[in-house]
Design brief:
two-stranded antiparallel ribbon; 9 helices; elongated
Length: 151
């Protein structure tokens, strides 16, 4: 009798996306504004495109350009979140695949499925609980986003 209740509870827990699964809209709006500001700063020729040479020293943007098969530039909409969409779906998907026991945390063994997380595990585990959560990864991503310059 207790087993079906536990299974139902676990299934419900998997279906409900907790607040930490996606960044909140305010944080995403701020991130979006910083990315737009960065885009405008990097667009040295002012043509509304970031060509390969304008992306030097920006590995995240270079990777994003590589994902654009056959395209040799990034547009502003490529780096900015569109209304109604959530950035980070790929990270969330990979995180969930690596989370073998579905506890929404990666231990060291599960982290081996994400090589970058495995290599930087100690630095990513901000609260030192021997687990990395998706929220800790989101915090890192927000911290790495370029800050907006104040006039």
């Amino acid at each position: 009798m207790k087993l079906p209740v536990l299974i139902a509870g676990a299934a419900l827990n998997l279906l409900l996306v907790p607040g930490v699964a996606w960044p909140d809209q305010g944080a995403m709006r701020a991130y979006n504004q910083r990315m737009e500001s960065l885009f405008l700063r990097l667009d040295s020729n002012g043509n509304g495109r970031l060509e390969r040479q304008e992306l030097d020293g920006r590995p995240a943007l270079q990777r994003q350009l590589k994902r654009k098969a056959g395209q040799h530039f990034l547009l502003l909409e490529d780096v900015r979140t569109r209304r109604g969409t959530v950035r980070g779906q790929r990270l969330t998907h990979r995180f969930r695949k690596a989370d073998l026991n579905s506890d929404r945390r990666l231990n060291r063994q599960e982290a081996t499925r994400l090589p970058w997380v495995e290599r930087h595990f100690n630095g990513l585990d901000r609260n030192r609980d021997a687990h990395v959560t998706l929220e800790e990864l989101w915090d890192l991503q927000r911290a790495l986003a370029p800050r907006q310059r104040r006039p």
